[in-house]
Every structure is written in C-alpha cells, then in structure tokens.
Specification:
Layout lengths: L5 E5 L6 H12 L2 E4 L1 H13 L7 H10 L2 E4 L10 E4 L2 E2 L7 H11 L2 H15 L4 E5 L2 H5 L5 E6 L2 H14 L6 H15 L10 E4 L5 H18 L8 E2 L5
Parallel strand pairs: 1-6, 1-7, 2-6, 7-8
Antiparallel strand pairs: 3-4, 4-5, 8-9
Length: 240
C-alpha cells in the first residue's frame, strides 16, 4: 500500500495549513494546491476592477470568466507556487492587507464557491496532491484518502501571521492582526468544516518539520503493516 493519493488539510486562517501542505507535498513529491489562492485572486481582481464586493452575481461572473492558474514556482523569490490571472503573475499581491481583510467576505458567497469548487475538484482528481483550504475534505474532495484538520489558538495564529507580515514589510501591531483574524474566523465559520473522518491536529508548540515528520512516520508505519494510514491524534466525530 502506497501513500495516500489525495491528502486534504483544512483549518482556520493562519493555522499553518499552507506551510504544512507545501512541506508535505515536497516530501512526497506531490502537487501542492492551496485552494484559498483562487479566492484571494478573485478578491484581488475585484478590488482592482472596482467591482462591488456586495454583488455576488458580478463576483461569480468574474470567477467564471477569468483564467486562474496555479503553477510551480516560476521565480526563485521564496514563493511556494505561482498564481496567474489571465496570464499575469499576481502571487505576492494575493497577500496584500486589503485582500486579507476582504477575501472571507468574497469567499462567503455560495455562487462564488460553486464557481471555484469545480476548478478545485478537477485538480484534486488528478491525484498525488495535497490540497489545503477550509471545506476541501468535507465538500470539495469528500472521498480523499487522508484528511487533516489543523488548528491552533488565536494567539498563536496571530503571532505567526504578524511574523509573516513583518517579514514582508507590513508592520501591523499584533493586536490588530489578532482582531483581523477574529473577524475572519467569524466570517469563515460557515465554510470552515471539519470532515467527520478527519484527523484533528493541534500544532501549537510544533515546528512545520515536526508536523511533517509525524505524518510521514504514520504513513510509513501503516504502509509497512498494509493498513490504511491513521495519524495517532484526535479524530473528529462530527462536521462543524
């Protein structure tokens, strides 16, 4: 028995999903797909085109008409992937503070999620992929081989996001970052789902390398035993 062909990682903002997903995909030789970048790209384009963020029909139409691509890194500048919108590289612009503050609102519209989920599912069905998001294991890829729900306390998530912003030259106070995350948590709640068969992994006090090592060790142990992979952690009993 080989490693799981489709691995999903869901969780709230700044829980470390992207870092874990990228490292795990690299270790396995899999494609890394952060599904949230599609919502970020749509939000960025809506802001640039001065579309109303209160018009779900216009946003869904934009999602259907723009060509969004997630590629392997095309520039050696520390990026995990390259995101193109109609051929233009928008990778780093996706982390703009205005995108951060509006992406949950845009992603909350059912019409927008429907328009982008089909693209997400198409990529996932290719296999050998680590998919990261908020509803991937529960909605987009319910038959995924292995599902993780990654979580951490608000204070830890704010510390991580603050460090990331500082590294990119955006010196917001950590208190402001925490307030933004709280607001995003409230907006994201209805779309942040814990799959019934997910492993819940709380990663405070763990480095990304330690998280990956733990997951890989479980895969290798279960592959040697010929059983389905089970990470020795808390299992979800109900979707939220």
């Amino acid at each position: 028995m080989g490693f799981p062909a489709v691995i999903t990682i869901d969780g709230p903002a700044a829980s470390g999903k992207s870092t874990l997903g990228a490292l795990l995909a690299h270790r396995l030789g899999y494609t890394y797909f952060d599904t949230g970048v599609l919502y970020r790209a749509l939000t960025l384009l809506a802001l640039r085109h001065e579309l109303s963020l209160e018009d779900p029909e216009a946003l869904a139409a934009l999602a259907q008409n723009v060509k969004l691509e997630v590629l392997l890194p095309t520039v050696d500048d520390g990026r995990q992937y390259t995101v193109q919108a109609d051929g233009a590289d928008v990778t780093w612009a996706l982390r703009d503070v205005l995108v951060d503050r509006n992406v949950s609102h845009v992603a909350g519209y059912p019409a927008v999620r429907t328009a982008l989920r089909a693209q997400q599912r198409t990529i996932g069905l290719r296999g050998n992929v680590v998919m990261v998001g908020r509803d991937i294991g529960a909605i987009v890829m319910p038959d995924a081989d292995f599902k993780i729900y990654l979580d951490a306390p608000l204070a830890e998530r704010a510390r991580r996001r603050h460090a990331d912003l500082m590294a990119r030259g955006t010196p917001l106070p950590v208190e402001t970052v925490a307030e933004d995350l709280q607001r995003r948590d409230a907006l994201d709640q209805r779309n942040t789902l814990i799959p019934e068969d997910a492993v819940i992994m709380r990663n405070e006090g763990m480095t990304p390398d330690e998280e990956v090592a733990r997951i890989i060790a479980s895969f290798e142990q279960d592959r040697a035993l010929g059983t389905a992979p089970v990470l020795h952690a808390e299992r979800s009993s109900a979707a939220r």
